[in-house]
Amino acid sequence: MRVDVRALGACNRLAERGAERAANALGELTGSDLAVEVTGASVATGEDLAEAFSGRESIGVRVGLDGGLEGSAVLAFDADQVDGLLSVLPGGASMGRSAVTEVGNIALGGFLDGWANYLGRAIDMTPPRYFEADGAAVLPDGALAGDGVFLFESRLDATATDLDFSIYMLPDSGPFRDLVVGKTATAATAGAEGAGGSAAGATTAVPYESLSTFASLAKRGSANAADNVGMMTGLETTVDVSRLRFVPLADVPSEVGTEPHAGTVFELQGQPSGYLAILFSEESAAAVAEAMLPTEPDEPLGGTAENALRELGNVMTSGFIDGWANVLGTSISHSPPEFVHDIGSATVSPLVASLSRRQDYGFVIDAAIRMEGEQARCDVYALPDERELAAALERLAET
Amino acid sequence: MSHLTPSGDRPASGWTDPDRSDPARNDAPRRVKVGVGDLAVVSDGATLTTSGLGSCVAVALVDPETGIRGLLHAMLPSADGSVSRSPRPAKYVDSGLETLVDELASAGASPRRLEARLVGGAEMLDLTAAVGPRNVERARERLEVAGIPVVASEVGDAVGRTVRFLPGGDLAVRAADGFERTL
């Protein structure tokens, strides 16, 4: 199966617009403004998803899909937000489960409406089913069985209150497969619809198996980077999450968030080129720098700490991309580290802007590395050039 | 089983969701978030916000007579020469400004009365230093061509910023270093 990157962009744009409709529907129902923060399609195995969701408790609603799109869709939120949610719903706590079911029905209806329009075919939705789930059981049926599935995920945040929702959709093969491989006529002309993802006229097709191989490679890279942090700091490290996702690049800054961050950024040179950012919260950055230095620095994030974080970034980046060149059969190097200390989203925005000259969507690898329990944590974002990555994956499939 | 049928209402080809710009649908005061490569127009007492402005530039336009306001958060200077077929005019300063002015006019603002405030365009990274200043330069050029005066700005340097565009037209800017001012 070859995934047409442009068609995948079109699908992602649909998921994004669907999430906007769901946000509007929920906003009207709850009386609070909701904004779609991130929409993406992750390429993940069942095992990866189980790891990523472990420890989470969710409640929500799921529906089955038939017709223009087959599979299932889920609206979920964290179990600890249930009181907050019920307090803003009509009928509120007295309605409980049925209020949540109604929310799910409205939001998922809004989400799927756009897909039906786009496909020019009706989508049948089974009656919503309420659930309470541990870990990855929240995901649509079948997500954990696959050795590589496309899972669409949108996160919706209430701007005024502390409420956030996720919408997950796992399309079955069949009609969806025809969409992502670019067979469906509407998807093939997606540029006209406003969902183009790559160069005008060029079709970028990526062998799905190579994408899956690259996801595993990225995961190994995250583990190498974490090991290197362990060696440099003496702290025990764990990779919490490592995902390969296809996202609108413009969503990346809001995903990084508006909290102050410190860390390093790198330019990747070779095939693929791109950028890599290693970002810590200020407290984590200070804690890690201190663990690397023989004596406590005068300032938590002063010059000495900066140098320590640069050195750490160098070693992490080498670990992260080590193996890419071998597997992809290319040569990849990185620039010297540039220290950054600012609002997280402001730091990554120039990287995103730079890549956006050539692409609207991109494959993003993000990994969260945790040190000694909760003592420190960092996020690694790798943003490869889409077409160079596709070319490398193409070569990978040929070998 | 509910049945979602395709309607004649195709997904909107524009970028701003009209629902978000329609004051009748929500009670004021409210907060409208403008994402990266996004724009929004309001004609009620809502506060328009955008955060994490690094090299991107925010252009805030207000018609002081009607109070109709719009905010653009653009990433790159110009759609010209771009190989990406972007569905998002707001990604670029030039196409974003054009769309913003059109949407303001549709909402009832007079393009002749508009005044602009500019924020952002920082040189965040040595790796990508040129992006921010080019965004600001392009915004000034396009505003001049459109005959829209820039009444205040807070641009350049190497600092991230967050803005709130308040009813009445004031623009509150907070920098990552904690410095705050109102334009």
From TrEMBL, chain A:
Domain of life of the source: Archaea
Keyword hit for Chloroplast: no
Keyword Hydrolase annotated: yes
Alphabetical keyword list: Chemotaxis, Hydrolase
Entry-linked Pfam families: CheC (PF04509)
BP-aspect Gene Ontology terms: chemotaxis
All copies of domain CheC-like protein, residue ranges: 95-129, 306-340
Annotated GO MF terms: hydrolase activity
Protein name: Chemotaxis protein CheC
Automatic annotation (TrEMBL), chain B:
Compositionally biased residues, Basic and acidic residues: 17-30
GO MF terms held by the record: protein-glutamine glutaminase activity
GO biological process: chemotaxis
Class of enzymatic activity (EC top level): hydrolase
Catalysed transformations (reactions): L-glutaminyl-[protein] + H2O = L-glutamyl-[protein] + NH4(+)
Location of region: Disordered: 1-31
Superkingdom per UniProt: Archaea
The keyword Hydrolase appears for this protein: yes
Coiled coil stretches, renumbered: none
Keyword tags: Chemotaxis, Hydrolase
InterPro entries to which the protein is assigned, alphabetical: CheD-like_sf, Chemorcpt_Glu_NH3ase_CheD, Cytotoxic_necrot_fac-like_cat
The protein's Enzyme Commission number: 3.5.1.44
Function field: Probably deamidates glutamine residues to glutamate on methyl-accepting chemotaxis receptors (MCPs), playing an important role in chemotaxis.
Record-stated family: Belongs to the CheD family.
Official protein name in the record: Probable chemoreceptor glutamine deamidase CheD
Organism: Halorubrum glutamatedens
Origin organism lineage: Archaea, Methanobacteriati, Methanobacteriota, Stenosarchaea group, Halobacteria
